[in-house]
């Protein structure tokens, strides 16, 4: 299992592991450039595999992207669903988690798609493994742990 970190800063990591693409947000603010970076990586990965599993993990208290970024995500992210499956994990509790989940649902409705939202990594790993051929739940979990270790 080779996890390749393609971009990292203090609040986010973008990484791949085989047919899996991960974007982990831990307090980072999502800007237009972050969306473009993730979409470019998805396109690159989609050239080499038939189905891409996209795991988006948002840690507690990470800020909701600004409205222009949400609109851009909705208009440009629909192509993810043509060649991949995306599962979002909201790691948090209470009002913050409820707000984050609702934002994801609204974003998906604007994009004309549905989004799979989970509150734990194990359920997300099972969903991805069930829809992306050759992807195993343990691989997803180990890849997440390796990529998230960048946060310390």
Q: What would you note in describing this structure?
A:
This protein has a 6-stranded mixed beta sheet with strand order 1-2-3-4-5-6, sandwiched between helices. α2 (67-76) crosses α4 and α5 packs across α6 (137-148). The protein contains 6 helices and 6 strands; from the N terminus they run βββαβααβαβαα. It is α/β, with parallel strands linked by helices and 152 residues long. The protein has a single domain (4-151), classed as Transcription Regulator spoIIAA (2-Layer Sandwich). The mean pLDDT is 89. Helices cover 46% and strands 24% of the residues. β3, α1 (32-46) and β4 form a beta-alpha-beta unit. The chain is globular, with a radius of gyration of 14 Å.
What are its keywords?
152 residues; alpha/beta; Transcription Regulator spoIIAA; 6 helices; 46% helix
What does the secondary structure layout of this molecule look like, with pairings?
Elements: E1 4-9, E2 12-17, E3 20-25, H1 32-46, E4 52-59, H2 67-76, H3 80-83, E5 84-91, H4 94-111, E6 116-118, H5 121-131, H6 137-148
Parallel strand pairs: 3-4, 4-5, 5-6
Antiparallel strand pairs: 1-2, 2-3
Helix content: 40-55%
Count of DSSP strands: 6
CATH topology: Transcription Regulator spoIIAA
The CATH architecture designation is 2-Layer Sandwich
Largest sheet: 6 strands, mixed
Short description:
Helices cover 46% and strands 24% of the residues.
